[in-house]
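User: My collaborator sent over this chain with a note saying "see what the structure looks like." That's all I know about it. Can you take a look?
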Amino acid sequence: MATQINIKGIYFLSSSQEVSIVGTVQQGIFSYPSEIVTDHSGLNLVMNQLQHLNPDMDVYGLLENLQNGATQYYELSTTLLAHTSIDTSFISSAKPYRELRA
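Assistant: Without extra context I'll predict from the sequence alone. Here is the result:
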C-alpha cells in the first residue's frame, strides 16, 4: 500500500543539507501529522512532483527567501496549491529520509 504525504510546508536553511517537509502522512486508513527530513535531491524531486501536479501554478515562485543576518531561510507554503498530496516513493529514491512523528 502506497504512503502519501499531504504537504503543508517545506523549510530549509541555505547552509544546511537537511530539508524539512511538514504535512500529514496517509498510510492506508491511518493518517498522522509528520515531518520528513531529506536532502536537496529529495527537495528537487518533491518540487518537481508538486509542479507536475499543479501545472497552472509556478511552484518554484512560491518559495520565499527570508534572511536573518548571514543565514538564509527558505520556506514554501502550499496553501495556494490545489494538489499537495504526493507518494513518498519520490523521496525514497533520494538519500534515505527520516520521518519524525509526535
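A starting point for your reply to your collaborator: The first helix runs from residue 40 to 53.
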